[in-house]
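Entry
Fold in token form

___
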Amino acid sequence: MPTPPPTGPLVTRNTVAAQLGRLGVETGEILLVHSSLSSLGWVNGGAVAVVQGILDVLGRSGTLVVPTQTGDQSDPAVWGDPPVPGEWWDRIRATMPPYDPLITPSRGVGVLPETVRTWPGAVRSAHPQTSFAALGRHAKEITDGHARDCRLGELSPLARLERLGARVLLLGAGYGACTSFHLAEYRIPAPHVEVGRPAPGGGWETVVEVSITSDRFDELGHDFERDRPVVRGKVGAADVRLFPVADAVAYARRWLPLHRPRAEDFPPPPRLSGRRSP
């Protein structure tokens, strides 16, 4: 049976730039983009055309930032999608290649972030699990100094994006993908967890981190959009939302303790940063 023709709409580089411009994306601004390429329609040129369109509207003085997370740089004991047999865990830990910002591919964040990561001139932050890649004027300022024990907190690109007045662009993605809400988790009482991953010089390390989760972020986003100014529109067939990082963080900081409390009745575990196993 022949493959049916695409239903469209037909989206081009110019379509992306023009429609983002009409939504209010400005030349020279800093944009943190969460995206779903498939939601746009039939894109002539795929992710490359979308990145080109975004860069066209931002101009040479603008900055494009995307999450380039690598959740597989983690302890196989906690993997669930899919899990791996327990008898493999020790060997996986012993042989997992450590994170390298130049070559480790992003995972689970879509094709557009991976396209940005490999774009000429792109820079990427150093955190082995929650890195960001950036292109443009402020790219190095945003990505430098991402602490290895601060996934999405004060020593991550999110805090710099907040300070620099960046805006979030949800391009076909929902609020469940909004990493800015995670910065609020570092500013309210939250559990801590031990996070395992390959150490830079070999072996295995475990660090203590704030426990982060996107649970109920869709509800949080619904209330945020109801109560705060959020630009809404379309690029191709994709629903688009545009709002300041700082607004999202401030709203989440008030909302999360009321609607998703995560109080502990025990102290956080001792810091284990740098602990390695052979």
